[in-house]
UniProtKB/TrEMBL annotation:
GO terms for biological process: colanic acid biosynthetic process; polysaccharide biosynthetic process. GO terms for molecular function: undecaprenyl-phosphate glucose phosphotransferase activity. InterPro entries: Bact_transf (IPR003362), EPS_sugar_tfrase (IPR017475). The chain crosses the membrane at residues 40-63. It comes from the Bacteria. Keywords: Exopolysaccharide synthesis, Membrane, Transferase, Transmembrane, Transmembrane helix. One of its GO terms (cellular component) is membrane. This is Exopolysaccharide biosynthesis polyprenyl glycosylphosphotransferase. It is a multi-pass membrane protein. Residues 35-216 form the Bacterial sugar transferase domain. The lineage of its organism: Bacteria, Pseudomonadati, Pseudomonadota, Alphaproteobacteria, Hyphomicrobiales.
Length: 225
């Protein structure tokens, strides 16, 4: 049995969040260029401001458990092109993405510091480097492990729509509650619906809303990455 992404995600009527206007225009050609400029500026500022925090986290991670400070894993970006995603390491077992088991809330592989980093989404901050490199954007569908792309790509119709744009540090799906593990196939199908809606309705104004909600969520300790 396979889950199919609904074909009725009409930009005139579909919006999981009532605070977002139901009619959002498609992004003009210049929008992608403007989005890239914003990505460069904000990721550069963010990295400079976060240097002290990065140094503290690096020391704490190294003190807490053996292993590298930065976790690297191959993911697929825009057009399916592979890139190496960066995260602060939160687990004792490192996986390359070809075969991977999703981490569960009480997963014994997660370190003590890793639990805090995951709860606050601080483990995702090194991806600002991916954004600066142009491999990711601040806003877009979250990149999944290659094994997950191949698995869900066979079961969920329209799954690859997510790769029409650069993957993001945060996204429409995440601020609408679709984040973390997807134990049921229906959970991933819902995430794909939300990501597909973003791809078809993306705009700079929508990105601002997503970034704002992500920052507010992180400030309240809910996380949105």
């Amino acid at each position: 049995m396979s889950w199919s992404v609904s074909r009725d995600l009409d930009s005139r009527s579909y919006s999981p969040d009532s605070k977002i206007p139901h009619r959002i225009q498609f992004a003009p050609m210049w929008s992608d260029a403007a989005k890239r400029i914003i990505d460069i500026i904000l990721s550069t500022i963010g990295l400079l401001l976060l240097i002290p925090l990065f140094l503290v986290l690096a020391c704490v991670i190294r003190w807490d458990s053996r292993g590298p400070i930065i976790f690297r894993q191959t993911r697929r970006g825009r057009g399916g092109r592979p890139f190496e995603i960066l995260k602060f390491r939160t687990m004792t077992v490192l996986e390359n993405g070809a075969t991977i088991e999703q981490a569960k809330p009480q997963d014994p592989r997660i370190t003590r510091v890793g639990r805090l980093l995951r709860k606050t989404s601080l483990d995702e901050l090194p991806q600002l480097i991916n954004v600066l490199r142009g491999e990711m954007s601040l806003v877009g569908p979250r990149p999944h492990a290659i094994a997950h792309d191949e698995y869900y790509g066979r079961l969920i119709e329209g799954y690859d729509i997510r790769q029409r744009v650069k993957p993001g540090l945060t996204g429409w799906a995440q601020i609408n509650g679709s984040r973390g593990p997807t134990p049921e196939l229906s959970d991933m199908a819902q995430r794909v619906r939300l990501d597909s809606w973003y791809v078809e309705n993306r705009s700079l104004s929508l990105d601002v809303i997503i970034i704002t909600k992500t920052v507010l969520g992180a400030a309240w300790g809910r996380g949105a990455l």
